[in-house]
């Protein structure tokens, strides 16, 4: 194994680096092992307190900015409003960069930023993404604010790509489905309100499946979180025709399809969130289908009993699937 002289990093990092150089594991596998070791290692009390102080400080800054905006926003010109929001975004990005340890620390999944500093930096980058979206929205005053959500998503996604964090992933997810909703809303704006739910629901399902695919394929560092966010968004989108437009048949039909997909995916990806959303989707959709197909002839009590029975059956199915994922001989 070639050596480059001085050793840097922890002994675990040095050992994994040696395994990568010998071709025993890939860089991606080494990064995953290192993340697991960092997660298993308890934080030092000082680091934990530093993280808490950082969050409290950030909260006070946001509270002060909100108070300033609430008392003087109406008297500010549109230009000053944009400048103020842009200043918040720049300050948050600068704070994230300092917390990460400088531009050289932004190495994507190969970073070596301690967990506490990475989480705080991710929170600050999420604040910057939100401030960017607001600044663009105020500056262009568009309805729907497609450009605002797109600008915020770019900042959030770039922050996550440079330094992955759970907060950064959630910020990207939120801005992503807001952008999709705005685009679909603009595209179907000429349709009657009762016909908007189906295209919006299908778009959210596609968006959710995209997030789940990115998580399952390992493109995103936070695999299980991406799966959960994607499954939750797909399930919410499946029920959108019922909530918006009263198209109950499409609502429970799509909900059952998404729930079945979650349970099927659990066979290959044992993420508990897929099991939970699969059971939840079946429990919600089947009583709705019975109520709709019988034109409300079934009493509320019967529907509740049916929902309970379905939940028990779905739970039993989930337990069977979970046991099927466990290797033989494990108690």
In the residues, how many domains can be counted? 2
Largest beta-sheet characterization: none
Average pLDDT: 80
- What percent of residues adopt helix (DSSP H or I)? over 70%
Structural class based on helices, strands and sheet pairing: mainly alpha
Helical segment tally?
A: 13
SSE topology string? HHHHHHHHHHHHH
Low-confidence stretches: 1-7, 327-331
> How many angstroms separate the termini?
42 Å
* Percentage beta strand: under 5%
Radius of gyration: 24 Å
Overall number of strands: 0
Oligomer: single chain
Gross morphology is: flat
In words, what does this structure look like?
- With 331 residues, this protein is mostly helical.
- It folds into two domains: 11-32 and 47-187, no CATH class; 198-331.
- Helices cover 75% and strands 0% of the residues.
- The protein is built from 13 helices and no strands.
- α6 (146-162) packs antiparallel against α7 and α7 (166-187) runs parallel beside α9 (223-238).
- The longest helix has 28 residues, at 45-72.
- The radius of gyration is 24 Å and the shape is flat.
- It starts with 10 loop residues before the first helix and ends in a 6-residue tail after the last helix.
- The relative contact order is 0.05.
